[in-house]
Design goal:
binds calcium ion, four-stranded mixed sheet, elongated, alpha/beta, Immunoglobulin-like, about 200 residues
Length: about 200
């Protein structure tokens, strides 16, 4: 019996959640000496991402944030950051000490694709990818042609907050354009054959 109750308790929120809205998720990123895992996080508004610092080298701290103007700090207009992240804390003597940044995405104004910086106290930097999408319910629609709530087209206004496109992205765009061009040529060829 207990097993059943537990199963129902686990399943029921899933069913009810899928039907109405995105259930908030929490993502965890492990912050290491020279990399983060995972290196990129995709989430939607109302999710939470937490960055845990496990770089336990002596006297090395991390600070993760959005450095819009590239001056290696996070104190300018529209910038935000984790504050200084240590690998361990003596909370009895320093209650403000932090080992993790728990970033709750609770504002639709945060929607966008971010390239954040993890600035280490030794001067090195790790690039951090964080993609925040609007909660458009698209992943809760089980069948094509059905819709929940407001039945508008997806308006995922994902714009790069830092305009530097990576080579990978440029490559993908080029590949996409080439595929589109190829498909168009095939389409025209097919039309001409029919005529
Ligand atoms: Ca700055
Ligand atoms: Ca500054």
């Amino acid at each position: 019996m207990r097993g059943w109750t537990l199963a129902l308790l686990l399943v029921f929120p899933l069913i009810s959640g899928v039907a109405f809205a995105h259930e908030p998720d929490t993502f965890t990123v492990i912050v290491r000496e020279d990399s983060h895992s995972p290196v990129e996080v995709n989430l939607v508004v109302n999710d939470t991402v937490q960055y845990y610092n496990v770089d336990n080298r002596a006297n090395i701290t991390h600070e993760i944030g959005l450095d819009l103007n590239g001056d290696d700090d996070f104190d300018d207009a529209n910038e935000f950051s984790s504050g200084v992240l240590h690998s361990e804390c003596d909370w009895d003597n320093d209650s403000d000490c932090r080992v993790a940044w728990i970033f709750a995405i609770n504002d639709t104004a945060l929607v966008g694709n971010y390239i954040l910086s993890d600035l280490l106290s030794d001067g090195s930097e790790i690039e951090v990818r964080l993609n925040i999408a609007a909660d458009d319910h698209s992943n809760s629609a089980p069948t094509i042609g059905e819709c929940f709530g407001d039945c508008e087209e997806d308006e995922s206004e994902t714009k790069m907050k830092r305009s530097s496109q990576t080579d990978l992205q440029k490559g993908l765009m080029l590949a996409g354009l080439m595929m589109f061009g190829g498909a168009s040529a095939l389409f025209v060829a097919a039309l001409m054959q029919r005529a």
